[in-house]
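Run log, item B.
One chain of 176 residues. Sequence copied directly from the ordering sheet:
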Amino acid sequence: MNDSEKRVLEYVRKCSADGYSPSVRDICRELGFSAPSTAHTYLTRLINEGYLERAGKTGRQIRPVEDRPVSIPVVTKYSHGLPVIDPSGEHVFFLPDRKPQGQLFAIHAETRSPQTGIEASDIVIAETTDYAAQGEAAVILQENRFPEFVRLRAGRSSDADEPVIGRIIGIIRYIR
């Protein structure tokens, strides 16, 4: 998201908190855009990326997407390279207004991973992928049976000795 899109999103959120939806002309006036098409372009991008939604059929009924409940399967372990889903079913998490790229899954961390900031008993939310870039926190499958959380020094794919199975997008930690 570029700076102008961030400014538009923040303005729409402010207006929404004040109880109304701004028009394209309101956005132009507030943010100094000279053409309504500029504001419309940013609004369309924010809608397509999942940050805003149309509440009705008119253009003036745009609102920010709030945190929404998302049902995510929780993986308890891996057996022969395949995930074993928690038999108690999927868990519902409230995630920020972010549109994931892939299918989401969650893992209860059993050990601490200092390089990623993950503590034992955290719930790690990841999106499935077979590649993670350098510097990204990822879930790798160690010895084809047990997930490990690492921050990659170099990009890695599923072809590696310890294949990437997901990119970490969040951590849920309960404070006791």
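Observations after the first pass:
- Helices lie at 3-17, 24-31, 36-48.
- The CA atoms of residues 52 and 65 lie 5 Å apart.
Flagged for discussion on Thursday.
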